[in-house]
Amino acid sequence: MRLSRYFMPILKENPKEAEIVSHRLMLRAGMIRQQSQGIYSWLPLGKRVLDKVNAIIREEQNRAGAIELSMPTLQSAELWQESGRYDAYGKEMLRIKDRQDRPMLYGPTNEEMVTDIFRSSVKSYKDLPLNLYHIQLKFRDEIRPRFGTMRSREFMMKDAYSFDLTREGAEHSYNKMFAAYLRTFDRLGLRAIPMRADTGPIGGNLSHEFIILADTGESEVFCHKDFVGFDIPGENTDFDSVDGLKAIFDKWTSLYAATSEMHDEAAFDAVPEAERLSARGIEVGHIFYFGTKYSEPMGAKVQGPDGKEHFVHMGSYGIGPTRLVPAIIEASHDDNGIIWPASVAPFDVVVINMKVGDEACDDTCELIYAALKKAGKDVLYDDSDDRAGTKFATADLIGVPVQIIAGPRAVANGEVEVKDRKTGARETMTIEAAINRFVA
Predict the structure, then answer these.
(1) In terms of C-beta density within 10 A (0-12 exposed, 13-18 middle, 19 or more buried), how is residue 358 classed?
(2) Is 236 exposed, middle or buried (0-12, 13-18, 19+ CB in 10 A)?
(3) Parallel, antiparallel, or unpaired: how do β-strands 67-68 and 94-97 relate?
(4) SS3 letters for 72-114?
(5) Which of 52, 93, 360, 395 is the most exposed place for a label (fewest CB within 10 A)?
């Protein structure tokens, strides 16, 4: 992508409305634009990151055996009246009526709708277990949206829903998502700690929030320091192994970890003082097991091996991609801007032409740009007429992991400079070596 043809509205000044680093940097880098309170457009640079986050989420959901579908954003109120949540949910739910005066709502979550899909199609235990997921925009009319897309009214959510014949089966499904979440956040460059959590309006009696530690976190969290060094489940994790997944769950819940809502002061005091960690945290995922809370009132049951009908046991599992993007920035930035993990960076490399119009610089940059694109790399070519300082500031601000800098003096010697955005380390090398480093 040539910067001269790209839409990336950089802001030179810090926006006054931005209270935290991620909100400020997302606005300055031209990733998002606020349309109304708590509602944002995702501009091209931001959408590239969001798409890469979603791709990793999909890969790990699919690896764990979940199956993707797509459900509508608008839902019939009748389904929520069946479950008993329509009147109980509160003002966060946006209620509307269609032209036939039928009550509708903009879905804040999808337990009712997916239960309706399940009950209309699945009749036998032989079709279980089943886990259905989608990635969709949702709306909750937050009383105080803040921090940009960290806490917005319209947001994107990956929500998965599991169906099992028994509680034991449902716990295995829960453990699948537990391990999948650990892998997902690790691939996004985050260390997420699962903590016992309140089930809130979703309901149920087993729940964990996945929390990353950050000074700008919304709530205080308490945990054992050893979580920071725990090994993440590998790519070869067997998601069909009941014992294997139970061992992962047991390890990651063996030490104290809880959000402020579930904090037990006495239990935390029992942790050796040197091993206690009290910090602010950002929730990046939440999983629930809630048994037959929805299947019973909505009649979602299957015939079991005993020939009798059984209400299915369910769980739900949420990750907020539009929340994850600012969370990654909170965890990875410096005074100059964003430092993206390679897995979600909007571009792999930015090629910076220090003197546009200089034949040697132009030819060198075109050569590198074409070679990296041919190798399948996402490349941003800064062919703008901006001054050198502006080009460097832009590259640092948007956080592309690698900068290849072509200036007249270096190019005359057949060389370019390669800068690592994270460490700031610079290395001068031949043009061929620079290309080979990223295409090999």
Answers:
(1) middle
(2) exposed
(3) unpaired
(4) CCEEEHHHHHHHCCCCCCCCCCEEEECCCCCEEEECCCCHHHH
(5) 360
H or E element at residue 422: none
Distance, CA of 116 to CA of 110 (rounded, Å)? 10
Q: What pLDDT, on the 0 to 100 scale, is given for residue 43?
A: 98
Q: Quick one: DSSP state of residue 253?
A: T
pLDDT tens per residue across span 386-396: 999 999 999 99
Amino acid present at 437: R
Number of neighbouring beta carbons within 10 Å of residue 404: 27
Contacts for 50 with CB less than 8 Å, ≥ 6 apart: 42, 156, 321, 322, 325
Q: What is the DSSP letter of 197?
A: -
Side-chain-facing half-sphere of 76: CA atoms under 13 Å:
9
Structure tokens at 171: 């716990």
**Residue 222 in contact with residue 258, Cβ under 8 Å?**
yes
Instruction: Report whether 251 contacts 177 (CB < 8 A).
Output: no
Which tokens hold the place of 38?
Answer: 């708590």
Contact status, residue 403 vs residue 337, Cβ threshold 8 Å: no
Count, residues in the chain: 440
DSSP assignment, residue 273? G
**Contact (CB, 8 A) for 181 and 158:** no
Q: What is the model's pLDDT at position 202?
A: 53
CA distance 365 to 378: 15
- The overall longest dimension of the chain from CA atoms, in Å, is 82
- 369 and 379 Cβ atoms separated by less than 8 Å: yes
Bridge partner residues of 42 (DSSP): 32
Q: Which bin fits 275, alpha (ψ -120 to 50), beta or left (φ > 0)?
A: alpha
Pick out the chain residues at pLDDT < 50: none
Q: What is the pLDDT of residues 312-362, one digit of tens each?
A: 999 999 999 999 999 999 999 999 999 999 999 999 999 999 999 999 999
Report DSSP letters for 198-218, one per residue.
--GGG--SEEEEEEEE-TT-S
**Bridge partner residues of 283 (DSSP):** 211
What type of residue sits at position 327?
A
